[in-house]
Specification:
Layout: E1 16-20, E2 23-27, E3 32-34, E4 44-46, H1 51-56, H2 59-79, E5 80-82, H3 85-101, H4 105-116, H5 122-127, H6 132-142, H7 148-163, H8 167-182, H9 188-196, H10 198-201, E6 206-208, H11 209-222, H12 229-242, H13 251-254, E7 267-273, E8 298-300, H14 317-337, H15 343-354, H16 357-384, E9 390-396, H17 410-429, E10 434-437, H18 443-453, H19 459-483, E11 488-492, H20 500-503, E12 515-521, E13 537-542, E14 546-549, E15 555-558, H21 561-578, H22 584-593, E16 596-597, E17 604-605, H23 608-618
Parallel strand pairs: 3-5, 7-9, 7-10, 8-9, 10-11, 11-12, 12-13
Antiparallel strand pairs: 1-2, 4-6, 14-15, 16-17
Helix pairs in contact: 2-3, 3-4, 3-11, 4-6, 6-7, 7-12, 8-12, 9-16, 14-15, 14-16, 16-21, 17-19, 18-19, 21-23
Length: 619
């Protein structure tokens, strides 16, 4: 799924007086320790017009907003002890962008030096400073940020840095950059704000700290000679073209395909997701002999938490009408990413370049629902691949919370808490051995949902309510997993390239004996640039361009930890089909023991063939 930056926050500095030896002495307040994203305070910025109006405003008007944002940003960095590097990267990037807007080269250079210290992933370390160093160096050489001399110096430095990059480590990122170039037009920053931010602030007339950071980022970009973008794209395209070798695909050699000759025991696999087009898997379905108020293949809940009989969410007539377009759009995005000049790619690029911001906003509003509508079916196909003993169990609900048309309440959360308890009992009572959960929710998601649907403008008040709802939601998820102790739950780490434990996402941040969290690697077994990580992420699997079915029977390739998680569920179900007496702990141990650790210890890449071989040796 496409991402914007993760949670941003800021706080006003706090000073306090202490008394020592009978005299009043003012001391600096100790920094407040930040252990998770919820420890970060919230800020908002009232605006009278739209966010796009603010982006285009004259310097005097923009400076009023920038001064407030800068004060909040500095107090965050000065008054809080933030150990999480993802959060520090976001805040330091804001600091750099403020300096660029203010034409302060020294401050920008200082921020870049600080940012260099908090890069974690190998590709981030290799790519860091790709834009900043050419800009700052050329600025220093020429004394200006524009003009022929500056552009010549910038492009020479930029080309040198691009051509020195290690292709095996950065190929995914550079392909994405190259694809992005095909969608570029000079109005991209403004159109992004019009379609992505304006609709969110029209109701409250306030910007969140995260949205404010996006505005500052776009303003900095617009002042950093965007006219160079075509030249940068030319350099990137040439680099990608000259490195046409594709990394070896490790997965075919690790794949395990079971047959009836393996003397399999049927194994029930729950897909706790957006529903399944069960017509695509007629021979791999669980059928409940007593379905009651729900469908014969499992449980399904509407957006209000009410049980109904269905395997898949229903589409409105409008959504049904654009579903073929959405499929073509998804295919076009994929083809563009892998540099395939297909009609679908051409149509997708044309839409991006010619549609108005309003048209894009309307389309993506519908497309967001359709994307998650396809999600569960795609996940199910990965989970049952090569396993004739697999029996799919539907557990359907809509987890695209920020797209729901009403404000969340405590009552709504408690309804789903009762639903989740029913899910746990159903999984236990029907001996569902593996459950895939390619979703995760955190406080910031409930805050975003409230900011879009409630009339409350105070972000502090919204945060308090979001934390209350999140606590109920977290307790509900934990309750489901603990109510089914013989079920192995497997979940996605997330796609924000951040520490899932610090983010507080559930279930990804949870420590439970029958739960495993999975990160994503690519075809070569290298960490993807989107995969989240952290202490709970103990396994990694293929999450890059994984092919599976979507409703209606079309096959699409999708990337995300949502695709990595069912690859682990697939392996777990195969092991249990071969040896049904395996407990969750034993299954986890088999997969972990045969996983391949990366040299730096960050990754533990599953090896299905090795896991099955070890199981068979122990028989």
């Amino acid at each position: 799924m496409l991402q914007i930056r993760s949670l941003r926050a800021s706080v006003c500095g706090i000073a306090f007086l202490t008394t020592a030896l009978g005299a009043h002495a003012q001391q600096a307040a100790p920094k407040k320790k930040v252990t998770n994203a919820s420890d970060l305070p919230r800020f908002s910025y009232p605006i009278t017009g739209s966010a796009s109006d603010l982006l285009k405003a004259d310097d005097a008007t923009f400076t009023v907003f920038l001064l407030k944002f800068t004060a909040d940003l500095n107090s965050m960095l000065n008054d809080y002890d933030i150990q999480n590097k993802t959060t520090l990267r976001e805040l330091l990037s804001d600091k750099e962008n403020v300096a660029l807007v203010n034409n302060d080269r020294d401050a920008a250079q200082s921020s870049v030096e600080e940012l260099a210290k908090v890069q974690e992933k190998p590709d981030d370390q290799a790519l860091f400073g790709l834009g900043e160093y050419p800009l700052l160096s050329a600025w220093k050489q020429t004394g200006t940020r524009s003009g022929p001399d500056y552009e010549k110096a910038y492009m020479a430095i930029y080309a040198g840095r691009i051509n020195a990059l290690p292709w095996p480590i950065v190929q995914e990122d550079l392909k994405e950059m190259n694809a992005g170039c095909k969608f570029y037009d000079p109005d991209s920053p403004l159109n992004y704000v019009k379609s992505g931010i304006d609709p969110l602030v029209v109701k409250t007339h306030t910007l969140s700290f995260q949205q404010a950071g996006e505005i500052v980022n776009m303003r900095a970009y617009m002042k950093s000679d965007p006219a160079l973008e075509p030249q940068r794209c030319t350099v990137v395209a040439a680099y990608v073209k000259s490195h046409t070798t594709t990394a070896p695909d490790i997965w075919p050699a690790r794949e395990v395909t079971l047959t009836a000759a393996d003397k399999l025991t049927p194994v029930r696999i729950g897909i706790w997701d957006s529903g399944i087009d069960t017509s695509l898997y007629p021979d791999q379905l669980f059928t409940d002999p007593h379905p009651g108020a729900h469908g014969p293949h499992g449980l399904a809940y509407d957006i209000h938490g009410k049980l109904f009989a269905a395997d898949l969410q229903t589409l409105t007539p409008a959504q049904q009408s654009i579903y073929p377009q959405a499929l073509a759009f998804s295919q076009g995005l994929f083809d563009t990413m892998v540099n395939v000049d297909s009609p679908a790619a051409a149509d997708t690029i044309k839409f991006y370049k010619t549609a108005s911001p309003e048209q894009k906003s309307a389309f993506f509003k519908e497309f967001s629902f359709i994307d998650q509508y396809m999600h569960g079916t795609h996940v199910a196909g990965i989970a049952v691949r090569g396993n004739p003993a697999a029996r799919l169990v539907v557990v359907q609900f809509n987890d695209r919370l920020t797209g729901l048309p009403f404000a969340p309440t405590v009552e709504w959360a408690n309804q789903f808490k009762a639903d989740f308890a029913q899910i746990g009992d159903y999984l236990r009572d029907n001996n569902v051995r593996v459950v895939n959960m390619s979703w995760s929710d955190q406080v910031s998601e409930f805050e975003e949902w409230l900011s879009q649907t409630s009339t409350e403008k105070d972000p502090v008040v919204r945060k308090k309510l979001a934390e209350q709802i999140y606590a109920i939601w977290k307790d509900a998820v934990v309750g489901t997993i603990t109510r089914a102790p013989n079920t192995l739950f497997i979940c996605a780490a997330g796609n924000s390239s951040s520490d899932s434990t610090f983010d507080g996402g559930v279930p990804a941040s949870l420590h439970l004996p029958n739960l495993v969290t999975v990160g994503a690697v690519d075809q070569a077994g290298l960490e993807t640039n989107f995969s989240s990580y952290g202490p709970t992420v103990v396994l990694d699997a293929d999450g890059y361009q994984v092919e599976s079915y979507v409703p209606g029977g079309t096959k699409l390739k999708e990337s995300g930890t949502s695709m990595a998680s069912p690859n682990v569920a697939n392996l777990a179900a195969k092991l249990i089909a071969l040896k049904p007496s395996l407990t969750p702990a034993e299954t986890i141990a088999l997969i972990e023991k045969t996983a391949d650790a990366s040299p730096d210890g960050r990754l533990h890449v599953i090896n299905p063939k090795a896991a099955v071989a070890l199981l068979q040796q122990s028989h």
